[in-house]
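User: Please predict structures.

Assistant: First:
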Amino acid sequence: MQKSEKIWMDGRLVAWDDAKVHVLTHTLHYGFGVFEGIRCYQTGAGRSAIFRLAEHNRRLFDSAKILGLKIPFSVEEIEKACVETVRVNKLKECYIRPIAFVGEGEMGVPSALTNPVRVAIITWPWGAYLGDDGLKNGIRVMTSSFARFHVNTLMTKAKAVGHYVNSVLAVSEARAAGFDEALMLDTDGFVSEASGENVFVVRRGAVKTTPLTSILEGITRASVMQLLRESGVAVAEDRFTRDEIYIAEEAFFTGTAAEVTPIRELDRRPVGSGRPGEITRLVQDRFFAILKGEDKRHEDWLTYL
């Protein structure tokens, strides 16, 4: 990871190497915290813009509410701090990570309710999460042996720190087997999501994505659904199975980190022709045109610095 100069921590900017927490930080032990992943892009006009900052910060606070975590700053203060942290680090393009976590104090599981809540915002340069070649040509995926958690086991609408143990297990298994990413099924055996991405499938010209049951409500997912519909492509939220992906014409992942990444292979079976398809390319073209400020129809999705 490339260091930035400053990290915003509990209301003030501190040097990267000074942004430290105690080893007894509650979230380190019990995973009780929430975070967001946000991207800032350099537009064609030379100005940088953060993609859907308001929606990401709203989800951060929604996640905290689900967990019963009280963030000691307002939504507006966190939004302003995100912008300030990018500016002070003089980053043209970067990843932005706000995180709210339970600090040190009493130990034990119930201490999540009484220990102080701390907040940090970190920014750093980060390229294509699944690689530039993955964005262009697609990635190889395997179905994980680890299921996505049930909605009453963990709260699936919260982007919570501890949830990602499930993701780490799945993607580690996939990487060890020589794949790029893991496809995860829900507890009923239907396609849920990947370790950090939502899933779309194109079959017989129809586009489907997993409904909001076992998945995180992705902001890139919602953006892509809107772009598809504006382009005259119907998209349904419906359950589907992994073998539907085997016989699909196209499939792709969406997410802040992964952006729009084609799936060229699942479980050693090529998806369609084994190359990104027409609808996937359409989505990529529309999505990146907005991020780069070339498509003015969704300028409200960009917060310019």
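Second:
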Amino acid sequence: MAKVGKRITSAREGIDRNKSYPLGEALTLVKERSKVKFDETVEVAVNLGVDPRHADQMVRGVCVLPNGTGKNVRVAVFARGDKADEAKAAGADIVGAEELVQQIQGGSIDFDRCIATPDMMPLVGRLGKVLGPRGLMPNPKVGTVTPDVTSAVNDAKGGAVQFRVEKAGIVHAGVGKVSFSEEALTQNVRAFLDAVQKAKPSGAKGSYLKRIAVSSTMGPGVKVDLASVAE
């Protein structure tokens, strides 16, 4: 345990935990303090002025990051016939119908994103209890129930991140890797915040974006100055 303590203490050096930094500076601090041997994910967390227990204050959506996520995303598509062929041509990793339902019911979930054509939803609906808790259930609101499987697969592979507000009013997402340039990360964070802003629900009153922080997978959080992202 001592080693973990030393690593965290070292990573926190030079970060004023009471200070909010301009976005670019905050991302530089996150990059500089990555002390592990793998390429960590850079994450952004946003505290919103909403109470998601109310239906008119639910926040969810999708954002295509301009510089991708840096992750190899495995995509499963529920489709038949020509749409199945389209999905395969677009680079989907798994394509199927009834046999894919059986595979998932059997406990095999070897994918990060799930897409379905509208006609497949009665079939996919059987998997709600399996896919729902994992955040994998296809949903038209985030573009994963669509007849345009080519675009959906391309978006998923190219850097689309889904977000959904949690009980505490927080949305978060991975927005790239520590190896990304500060500029690329800044562009991704701004794109994500813009998508969250556009998803502002009708029931949100008062201040919507309350607090923003960035961090790496194993690193400390760095507060972001709200004024620096409003530019």
